[in-house]
Specification:
Strand 1 and strand 2 form a beta hairpin. By secondary structure, the chain is an alpha+beta fold. The strands form three sheets. Strands 1-2-5-11 form a four-stranded antiparallel sheet, with helices on one face. The chain has one domain: paralog of FGE (formylglycine-generating enzyme) (Alpha-Beta Complex). Helices cover about 15% and strands about 20% of the residues.
Length: about 240
């Protein structure tokens, strides 16, 4: 899978979010780069849908208007409030509340990585070429950099046509944080969902303030579920009906 295929899309009726069909399959998850990415291991996933981009401010405002949920601190702040920017300053529970309202869910970490990499073990969503600013939003100063509109780097699309999976904002995944299966537990893991419990959750995707070295599709972040930052957002997933 070396090329971006024309994506099969659907619109989620509750929030009008665009979802990309991921056909499922086998891939090697993880890498040899860092200890928390080891060991590389085989995973097999069934088909699912995933958000083509992160949830936007416009989508989150719709959620707030219907549920009277609290607004993130930056939702109406200058440089963060545009309708097409990703919503940020949401924690894990905020993301779950949105998903329940919209009839969707957070992607598992394995689903997230497969949507970003496909089956050819590429380093980045777009392939193995080194990052540049035509493919991802990264390396900005915290005092002057702000999230870009979703979908603003189409050259960074994954092999399935999923956008913004490297840089711009970090994204919550459903899993508790923990190490990958050891070599002794090797084999093909079907639809893994991470440890049964833990203290932290997984985030993926890097962000606008991090360096190019963090843009790998295997990069993992153990994160306290209560954390809210102006570079933390989420995308959704949905089961096949």
């Amino acid at each position: 899978m070396s090329e971006v295929h024309k994506p099969r899309l659907m619109t989620n009726p509750k929030d009008n979010g665009v979802l990309v069909y991921i056909p499922g399959g086998e891939f090697t998850m993880g890498s040899e780069r860092y200890s928390n990415e080891r060991p590389p291991h085989r995973v097999k996933l069934g088909a699912y849908w995933i958000g083509r981009t992160e949830v936007t401010n416009a989508m989150y405002r719709h959620f707030i208007s219907e549920t009277r949920s609290a607004a993130p601190a930056t939702l109406n702040a200058d440089n963060f409030k545009a309708d097409d920017q990703p919503v940020v300053n949401v924690n894990y529970v905020d993301a779950l509340g949105y998903c329940k309202w919209a009839g969707v869910r957070l992607p598992s970490e394995a689903e997230w990585e497969f949507a970003a990499r496909g089956t050819d073990s590429r380093r980045f969503p777009w392939g193995n070429a080194e990052p540049d600013l035509s493919r991802a939003v990264y390396g900005l100063r915290r005092t002057t950099g702000f999230p870009a509109p979703v979908g603003s780097k189409p050259k960074g699309a994954s092999p399935f046509g999923v956008l913004d999976m490297a840089g711009n904002v970090l994204e919550w995944c459903a899993d508790w944080a923990g190490p990958y299966p050891s070599d002794e537990e090797s084999g093909i893991s079907p639809n893994p969902t991470g440890p049964p419990q833990g203290a932290k959750r997984m985030m993926r995707g890097s962000c606008l303030y991090y360096t190019a070295t963090t843009l790998s599709a295997t990069e993992r972040y153990y994160t306290l579920p209560a954390m809210k930052r102006p570079y933390c957002g989420f995308r959704v997933a949905r089961n096949i009906d």
